[in-house]
Structure formats: structure tokens, C-alpha cells
Amino acid sequence: MSLVKITFPSTPPSSSPNLNPTYVLTLSSPPDHRLTESLLAEFGEALNAIEKDWWVRRREQGTDKPIKNQVGGAVIVRGEGEKFFSNGLDFENSVKNPDFHPTVFNPLYLRLLTFPLVTIAAINGHAFAGGYMIALACDFRVMKKEAAGRKFWCCMNEIDFGAPFPVLFATALRGRVPARVLRDTLLGHRFTSSELYAHGVVDVLSEPSDEGLMGAAQSLSDRYGPKSAGRVWGSIKQDIWSDIRVSAHSHFPPLMGDQAEARAERTFGLKKQDEESKSGERAKL
What we know:
By secondary structure, the chain is α/β, with parallel strands linked by helices.
């Protein structure tokens, strides 16, 4: 069973000209599309397949033309269903692998962040933690309007389950989230679509249906996909986000809560927790 599905443009590369193909990449790991190592690996493979198809289309249609007459294109990233875009990393398993971020997550994140086609996150449902980071890696974001009491949230909720930010997360958030909402983002605020739109994090609010969401994402593809035709969009993003690229290769692991507590014990001469519990037991006697 595929964890990431690709919908290719309906016209094959060798058929009649399609100068602005739209690819749809769907995260498909129910119930909440967790970013496991397997899903992230398939995500990278899907991006490779899309980029290869795009280059084939460009060559089939010819590259000896003005840029406006060459093949551009865009990728829409979405989650399957209507509840979750992605609920984030498979945290319990990711922390077991000390190389998870430098060798698994970070390369995929940089690949998406600097992809040569325009990328659009169609945030179909909740996007938490690493799932929200994936949406922020895209060039544009679309969410549904709130309707009939139904809301979807985007949230960096690591603070609420005791997980520090990896260096890449911290650097990317500084670059992708407006300063006026960065503090609330770090404190785990659950942003609604209307809040994110007001702050400029979400570019378009669609009608509150899956059809409306994908229609709005397609409109962005139609408008901005042709910008990919110049073959430099990926390079421009590599340069503008150079600080994020550098942070992806940092080998300084974040300080977990128990490690922070151990450091406090050393710094302030505190008793270790197990010693305190034993002292308490003796006092009761």
C-alpha cells in the first residue's frame, strides 16, 4: 500500500502541449498521515518521479523557445480525507534514531523547500508539528474557510508534549512565520485558517469543501506554475533559504526535557529525582 500517491497530469508528455502541468501529491497513511520514516522515503521518491516527468515534458515540448512558451508547472501537496493534512512526526520512533533529523527528515524538507516547481500546500485538515512544517516548506498555502462550527488548526505543539525544536525547525520557523506571530507559534497556539490568513501565513481561504480547496489550489497553480518554466525557481529558493539549508546539517541535537533536568542538577547541586523520592520515603517512616 502506497503511503504517498501521485496524480500526474492527464496529458502524457508526448501529447498535445500542456505548458503548465499540475501534479498532486497526496499523503495517504490513515488515520492522520504521520511522517514515519517509510512515508518520508516515499515522499522523496514521489518528488523525484514528479521532477523527472517534468523534465521529460520540457524536452518533448522543446526548450529552444521563449520562456513563456516553455513548460512550467506546480505541485499540490495534500492529505487524504478531510480531517488531517498531517499530524506530524512519528515522535516515539523518531527519537530512537539519533540520525532521524539529519538523514531522514531534513533532506526531504530541503528537497521540498527548494523544489524546482511551484509548490502549494492544500491544507485539507489539521496540520500539527512536523506536518505544519511540511506545509510551511511549500511556496503557497490554501486552507478552508471555517463553517458550521468546523475548524481546522495548524499548530507547533511540541511544547505541550515536552519536545524541543530541532535546529532546522527553529531556523525555518524564523524564516517562514511572521515575527508578530512567532512567539505564539512557539507556545503552541492552535491557529485557525482565518487567523493564519490574517497573518499572511495562508495565502488563500477556499470554500469549506474539498472541491473548493483543490479548486483554489489549482487557481494558484494556473497563476504561478508558469514561473517554473525559467528553470531557476529552485535555485532562487536555495539562495534565499540558505540559512535553513545550513541548519539542516547541524549536528547539535536538541536538549530533551530529562537532559535539561540533569543539567540543572549539575549546575545547581540539586538532588537527583530518585534520591529525592528515597529521602521522602525515609521522612515518612
